[in-house]
């Protein structure tokens, strides 16, 4: 799934590129393992997931299933501007579902075994926004994660992985070019108004369980540069985030793309421009060395 995120970053890169032939390609960027986006509680992860869904559908022709606890009532400024140049017909390839509980999420994911019989075919991308909502994690401290919560996390993650494997088999049987089926989820690491210091997985038992199933992690770390004026809120113009990948098949996060040829081993910078656009730019090796 990290390969789709890499395409999104390139598609919205601050540096102009020839994207007429945007497609999945073999090589260092083709990491199709399940991916989890983690970061503090705010709407930027939802915006990134929605942008990923629309880019995959509009630019790659991928059928997407987007699972989220509640409907997206309106598009934020960053999304409106970033989506302006995408084919609006791509939205027709995205199916939204709104499971309100863990039980409903499990039922919706399990029902995907039936969708292979339809003429449209199965989705090639499964997105779950706000996975913590379905695991009872919201509003509790990390020490509150009990054994049954960890078992539930393993159950949900395993079902997503098994369903993706099943859909991959069906996509390959149909000769679909967009196989395998990819999975990406988001998970809040903020607890009761503050983010635990250090590695969140060291303090969050649920995140440690999920890491076993989501082999790639995409971390969003808000840039709190004291020298720069702070935006009114996360996702507002002037907001800046650092993005980096870690996990299986990912190069060292401090390796530049020029050195290993892979944008997945590259640290990225996400800036919300004055017009509200989400703009991604790779962080140079020189900048990393000075950090």
CATH architecture tag: 3-Layer(aba) Sandwich
Number of strands: 9
Strand percentage, roughly?
15-25%
Which sequence of strands runs across the widest sheet? 3-2-4-5-1-6-7-8-9
Kindly provide the radius of gyration, computed on alpha-carbon positions and rounded to a whole number of angstroms. Answer: 18 Å
CATH topology: Rossmann fold
How many DSSP H or I helices?
A: 9
Mean pLDDT: 77
Assign the CATH class. Answer: Alpha Beta
> Largest beta sheet, briefly?
9 strands, mixed
Structural class determined from secondary elements:
alpha/beta
Count of spatially separate domains: 1
Q: What's the CATH H-level homologous superfamily?
A: P-loop containing nucleotide triphosphate hydrolases
* Secondary-structure element pattern, one letter each: HEHEHEHHEHEHEEHEEH
Q: Catalogue the unreliable spans.
A: 25-29, 139-144, 191-198, 253-261
| Distance between the ends | 28 Å
Question: What percent of residues adopt helix (DSSP H or I)?
Answer: 25-40%
Coarse shape: globular
């Amino acid at each position: 799934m990290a390969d789709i995120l890499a395409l999104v970053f390139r598609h919205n890169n601050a540096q102009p590129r020839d994207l007429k032939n945007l497609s999945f390609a073999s090589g260092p960027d083709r990491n199709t393992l399940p991916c989890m986006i983690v970061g503090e509680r705010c709407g930027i992860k939802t915006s990134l997931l929605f942008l990923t869904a629309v880019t995959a559908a509009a630019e790659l022709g991928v059928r997407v299933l987007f699972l989220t606890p509640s409907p997206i009532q309106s598009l934020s400024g960053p999304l409106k501007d970033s989506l302006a140049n995408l084919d609006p017909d791509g939205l027709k390839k995205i199916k939204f579902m709104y499971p309100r509980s863990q039980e409903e999420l499990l039922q919706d994911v399990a029902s995907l075994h039936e969708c292979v019989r339809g003429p449209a075919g199965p989705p090639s991308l499964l997105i779950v926004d706000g996975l913590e909502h379905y695991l009872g994690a919201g509003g509790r401290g990390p020490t509150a994660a009990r054994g049954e919560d960890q078992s539930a996390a393993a159950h949900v993650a395993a079902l997503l992985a098994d369903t993706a494997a099943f859909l991959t088999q069906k996509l390959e049987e149909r000769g679909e070019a967009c196989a395998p089926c990819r999975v990406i989820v988001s998970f809040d690491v903020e607890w009761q108004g503050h983010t635990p210091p250090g590695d969140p997985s060291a303090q969050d038992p649920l995140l440690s369980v999920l890491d076993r199933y989501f082999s790639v992690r995409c971390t969003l770390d808000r840039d709190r540069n004291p020298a720069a004026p702070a935006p009114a809120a996360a996702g507002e113009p002037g907001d800046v985030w650092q993005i980096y990948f870690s996990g299986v098949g990912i190069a060292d996060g401090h390796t530049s793309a020029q050195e290993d040829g892979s944008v997945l081993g590259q640290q990225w910078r996400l800036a919300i421009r004055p017009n509200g656009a989400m703009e991604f730019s790779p962080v140079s090796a020189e900048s990393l060395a000075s950090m």
